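Sample 1 of the test manifest.
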Amino acid sequence: MSGFWRRFARNRGAVIGCVIFTIVLLMALFAPLIAPGDPWRMAGPPRTDAFDPAHWLGTDMLGRDVWFTIVHGARVSLIVGGGATLAALLIGVTLGAVAGYSGGWVDDVLMRFTEFFQSIPSFILALLIVAIFQPSVASIVMAVAIVSWPPVARVVRAEFMSLRSREFVQAAIVLGQGRAQIIFGQILPNALSPIVVLSSFMVATAILLEAALSFLGLGDPNVMSWGFMIGSGRSTIRIAWWTSVFPGIALFLTVLALNLIGEGISDALNPRLHDRGEA
Amino acid sequence: MTLSAFLAFLGRRLFKAFGVVLGVIIVAFFIVRLAPGDPASVIAGQSGAADAQFMAQLRQQFRLDEPLFVQLWIYLKGIASFDFGFSHRVQRSVLGLIGERLPATILLTGTAFAFSLAAGISLGAMAARRVGTFADSAVTVLALTFYATPIFWVGLIFILVFSVRLNWLPALGMFSVGQDYTGLTAVLDVAHHLVLPALTLGLFYMALYARLTRSSMLEIASQDFVRTARAKGLSEGPILRRHVLRNAILPVIGFAGVQAGQLVGGSILVETVFSWPGVGRLAFEALLARDYNLLLGVFIVTSAMAVIINLITDVVIALIDPRIEVEG
């Protein structure tokens, strides 16, 4: 494992990703200290230019301080990113493990099901779910999870198919271990590394999805989010560009950071692939 | 592949496509039924726009007095006869509304799809050819950047830069207002309006396909038949073009076909940003008006669109790759 950390720390992109992500995480954790007060309130004169001494990222048409909205918006991004990824892992790992371990018709049915979810416009499905179940953090997490689990199921299935015939699994069967115990106690721990790599990319995608939903007005109406700010500044982009531009940069940096971390983990886990330039 | 094998493959593939569309309709049916409240009040929405007559009409449309599976059967029969219900907001049939907007969306997504594949494969091939050089790193950075940028934000930035500041390209709509262009000028006018939305939608997928092409080419380049070609004395250019690239793009096209659904979904965001008069913009309007009948119709029609694109790419791959295992 120390080899893993050494390789990870040597990857410049991954380290930059970690730094950016830590900053976003701290911003979300200490939002009430960094930007005290309600981010929705009128903090200054409407449409204050960016780089104003009192409001360094400007204010929007309703006088909301853009910097405050960015600090508070980090919270919902991370909650949805983390929550939806956990829920998607739960669905994907379960279905993938059962499919890969069982094989046969069970595998066939579950893979058709997975393929189905991959080939439909998942964004529209998420939109439909949130709209019909009413926008809230819970419904957004649910919708994002429902559209993000298929890649997990595929990866976990592939791992299980290659691991299930290995000797340690046969040994467990001979020892009389139950199916669930073999799946979750023996094979899953050995299939963790690709799941970890995938999770990092999934958090990034979930954050983008949440932002897209809020941008279209389907965010939780009680929570400030980056997507909402980009959307609310859209119609005034000609006269107040900063309202949309800065929350977008926050979104971009966070997603970039998570992708860089994911690649860093992937390269550090598969050093040979990287050396051949195939990673 | 012989003709009969190809027809059998096509038949299996069509059957699968049919299954996906059927699944989409069933999902749409159950989402409405799982939501809190009875389906008629869910569809009518919380806008307060629903009058008693509309509610009664909805209850009748859904046959809420029948058992659930009878309701599903009736719903499926309705869709099969192209009855997607009625949009209360604009007092028109959902199918008519979508049909009117479909050509604009097909133009936008088709252009973005072709652009992202062509540009992505070119960039990826260039990077793989000069692996480890500055050009390779530049492509990697470019791909990483677009892969992390939300497309609706890219659209806004493009409007800000190319329309507001530079005044090069129109920001909104599909036609110039008040100009009754005909013939070639009309085509050019639409093309002019198409540039920014198509670029916005395509750049993300270009990034994806560039990375995929690069890794696919590097993998193929290390295989034995490439070494054989080299040993035969072929020069690098033809080896890359005829042997490596031709084999490497097949998985990229296959992946692009599977991703078609995501591309169509992304068009909602792009059409909203650019006021492009397509199905995506219609979905946004439906969302604002809580017109769920219309939204369900958009979900089913765009899914069918994605399934058709996927089907076409599969057939193209089967035709250009003789090695492919023709199995559904």
